[in-house]
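Bug #77: duplicate submission created two jobs. Keeping one. Sequence:
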Amino acid sequence: MKKVLTSLTKYPLYIISLLPFPVLYLMADLLYAIIYYAVGYRRQVVQSNLRNAYPEKTDAEIYSIEKKFYHWLSDMMLESIKMASMSPETIKKRFRLNNPELISSYFSEGKPVLLVTAHYGNWEWGSLVLSANFREPLIIVYKPLTNKTFEEMMNHVRSRFGAIMVPMKQTLRKIVNYRSSTYWAVFLGDQTPVRQEAHYFTSFLNQRTPVFLGIEKIAKMTNAPVVFGHLNRIKRGYYEATFTTLSENPAGTTEYEITESHTRLLEKIINERPELWLWSHKRWKNSY
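Kept job's structure:
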């Protein structure tokens, strides 16, 4: 039954992925009207998150960000489907790496890299563009979904160019397997810890927020450079990534220094263009 359901979903989506970008974005415009006006997909969550994050903004300003967010979200959904058939040449054309030499310099020194990014810009295309530009093993750490059929489909397209998908709880085991070689591991720094794993809280977007400490723990254990990846949108269908080193010597950092570093940088990026972050995510459900 699982294979039947997967096939019924996978093949129609693959056919959609073959459509040219102009047609996909017409579909995205239609999808926007459906999820924003007709269905109202998580609008209460989005509005609550925006108002809590920006209490100083007027209703008109919040409304403007909200509408831009749903336009971007609709594009993201269709762009994610497009991943199923995108070629390496297409992803390189549409997703520019501004300073790949920063990553290459660590690899040339025989160092692995821990890359921190977020649900911002187009993190899904990020898995393809990083794999298409580097030969080193790319480990993508993800949080397993309740819907295993959808998880399997997404992991398949994310790993088309060789990325290695690793469930969050298996991260350390996988990294240990690569300890004698250069690699990079990608983490989403804005994931929400479950209650029993929420051991550290900080201020993020004007709210008390639990933050995973796994990135910092692995960084100190491996002493691998920690780099932040800012995945920005240039225009519709075109993105760029800019890498910023947060720590070259994690073993020498103070407690929570790395965690605060990537959290503060993400906060700054979101405040500059808030419509490109995933506001429909229930980020503060475990703020207690």
